[in-house]
Amino acid sequence: MTGGRRRRRRVSLPIPVLVLAGVAVAFFALPLVGLLWRAPWSSAWGYLTDDDALTALRLSMICSLWATALSVLFGVPLAWLLAKVDFPGRGVVRALCTLSLVLPPVVGGVALFFALGRRGLVGQYLDRWFDITLPFTTAGVVVAQTFVAMPFLVITVEASLRQLDTRFDDASRTLGASRWYTFRRVTLPAIRPALAAGAVLAWARALGEFGATITFAGNFPGTTQTMPLAVYLALETNPEQAIVLALALILISFAVLVGLRDRWFGRAPRANAVAA
Predict the structure, then answer these.
(1) Please, what sign has the CA dihedral across residues 81, 87, 90, 92?
(2) Nearest to 73 by CA among 142, 134, 124
(3) Listed residue (74, 221, 201, 197) closest to 141, CA to CA
C-alpha cells in the first residue's frame, strides 16, 4: 500500500475477452455518441433555457431527490430485514420488493393506479378519510419514482449487509450496546459505501423514470411533467429540442455516477475503521 491507496495490479486478459469487452463498451457508448453527433449545438442553449424545459428539469430534480430520500428511509430497514432475519417466505418477500426491477414501468403505473388511485384498494380510503389524492399530482410522481427506484438501493445494501463481518455487531452487543445503537454506530458506518452507491443508483433511476410516472401521475406541465416526459413530447413537435433535453438528462446522470464512483463505489469498509 502506498500513500494510503492500494496499488492496482495489471491483469493480462486474452485477446477475445478484450475484443468482446470493447464491443460491449461501444454498444453502450454509441447511443450517446449518436446524440452528440445530431445535437443542434448552435441552438442548444436556447432549448435548455426554455421555460418549459427548466420547469421540467426542476420538477425532475425535486421529485427524484424526494424519491431517493424515501428509498433510503424505507429501503435500508427492508434490506436489513432481508439480510439479517430468517423468516418463512423471505424469498417471496424479496421477490415482491424487487419486482419493479423487471416489471414494465407502464404495468407498474397501472398497478399503482388500482392500488392508490381514488377508487383503488387503498387510495379510496386515503381520499375518503384523509382527503389525500395521489394520481395526477406531484406527490404521485414521487410515489411512482420511489416504486421503481427503491429496489436498486435494497439489493445493493442487502448484498453489503450479507458480506459484513458480524463480529463487530457481536462485540458491540457484548459491551452492552442496544440493537438500535449498534445499527446506528456500527452497522451503518460499515455499509456506508454500499448505502451511497445504492442511493445514487436509486436517484439516477428515479430521475429517468417515464412509464410508471405518465401512467400514474399523468403529464401536466409544472405539476407532473418531468424531464423524460418533456423529451417524449418534444420528439413529436421539436426533435432537435428532444435531443438537447435527452443529452442534458444523460450528462447529469453520467457526471454524478463518474464523480462518485471512485469515492464511494470503489471503497470497501476496513476492519480497523469499523472497530474504531
Answers:
(1) negative
(2) 142
(3) 221
Task: Name the residue type at position 158.
Answer: E
The length of the chain is 276
Enter the CATH code of domain 44-275: 1.10.3720.10
**Which residues are within 8 A (CB) of 116 and not within 5 positions of it... i.e. 6 or more apart?**
122, 123, 126, 134, 135, 140, 143, 216
Kindly provide the residue ranges of all beta strands, DSSP E only, lying in 48-202, ordered along the sequence.
Answer: none
Is 265 within 8 Å of 194 (Cβ atoms)?
no
Burial of 235 (0-12, 13-18, 19+ CB in 10 A): middle
pLDDT tens digit sequence for 159-201: 988 887 666 666 666 666 667 777 777 778 888 888 988 999 9
Give pLDDT tens digits for 59-113. Answer: 999 999 999 999 999 999 999 999 888 889 999 999 999 999 999 999 999 999 9
Q: In 65-95, which positions are buried (b, 16+ CB within 10 angstroms) versus exposed (e)? A: ebbbebbbeebbebbbbbbeeeeeeeeeebe
Give the whole-angstrom CA distance, residue 263 versus residue 255: 13
Strands (E), 11-69: none
Cα three-residue angle 91-192-148, rounded to 5 degrees: 50
Gap between the Cα atoms of 120 and 216, Å rounded: 12
Q: What angle do CA 239, 243, 246 make, to 5 degrees?
A: 130
* Residue 213 and residue 229 in contact, taking contact as beta carbons nearer than 8 Å: yes
